[in-house]
Amino acid sequence: MLDRRQILAALGTTALATLAPTALPAATSIKPDDASALLVIDVQNCFLPGGSLAVKEGEQVVPVINRIAKAFSNVVMTQDWHTPGHVSFASVHSGKKPFETIDLPYGKQVLWPDHCVQGTDGAALSKDLSIPHAELIIRKGFHKDVDSYSAFLEADGKTSTGLAGYLKGRKIKRVFVAGLATDFCVAWTALDARKAGFEVHVVEDACRGIDTQGSLAKAWADMAKAGVKRIQSSDIAVSA
Ligand code: VGL
Ligand code: ZN
Which Pfam families match (predicted)? Predict the structure, then answer.
């Protein structure tokens, strides 16, 4: 014999199954409009397998980014673009090793292996990216004495790359951030986008992190506090 609770549960399931719009996208699905832009951050050979600052599983972001990019009429890409002997390279600070930190006039700086030197193959965008409609490539980190994780502002906190002005000039209100690395260039870009007044989504599975000294957890906490929305690529409506 079924008791009253089991009967109600069975009825509930049937009623829900009848109502479920299985053929439609989930109600939470996000449809990028002309006021939305995808920012593809630093998908460059140096950050991919075999590169000098390879991000674990970095290559896995490429097919995800290629797929979601189809849903955007506006795509901007960035390139980390350092001078030889850049201040962020451990090799120019005697006695220092990569991933150690130093104090610079603008604050604490993590030191990195030499990477993304202007004009080198390591600084080139991945040849597996397939986003022919990308409309702008912003290069950053090209001042020898200042780093720039963010696509908006250099690490001095005041020198603009011009990206906010570009996006505002194009009437963009919402940015979606993807690429490498979650805890550095993606996070700093997302935080500065919030400061510049944009609605910001970070597409988690379209990013991978470096994760040094707790940087990945800190980045997600900072982004949550700043009102950055953490989404998955499956939340974005991409027509076949
Ligand atoms: C990056 C470290 C140094 C990044 C760039 O793209 O996240 N990380 N330079
Ligand atoms: Zn760099």
Answer: Isochorismatase (PF00857)
Structure tokens at 96: 């220092």
CATH of the domain at 36: 3.40.50.850
In a domain, 7, yes or no: no
Would 79 be classed as within a structural domain? yes
- d(Cα 20, Cα 123) in Å, to the nearest integer? 48
- The torsion angles phi and psi of 212, rounded to 5 degrees, stand at -115, 130
**Residue entry with tokens 């509930």:** 12
Mind listing the pLDDT tens digit for each residue in 81-133?
A: 999 999 999 999 999 999 999 999 999 999 999 999 999 999 999 999 999 99
User: Of 79, 112, 118, 139, which is best to mutate to test ligand 1, by the most ligand atoms within 8 angstroms of its C-beta?
Assistant: 112
Residues 34-78 pLDDT 10s: 999 999 999 999 999 999 999 999 999 999 999 999 999 999 999
For residues 107 and 72, is the Cβ–Cβ distance under 8 A? no
Question: What residues are in contact with ligand 1 under a 6 Å CB criterion?
Answer: 42, 47, 80, 112, 149, 180-181, 184-185
End-to-end Cα distance, the chain:
48
Domain of residue 142 covers 24-83+116-235
- Looking at per-residue pLDDT, the higher value among 184 and 26 belongs to 184
Q: How many domains does the chain have?
A: 1
Tell me the pLDDT band of 20, cut-offs 50, 70 and 90: low
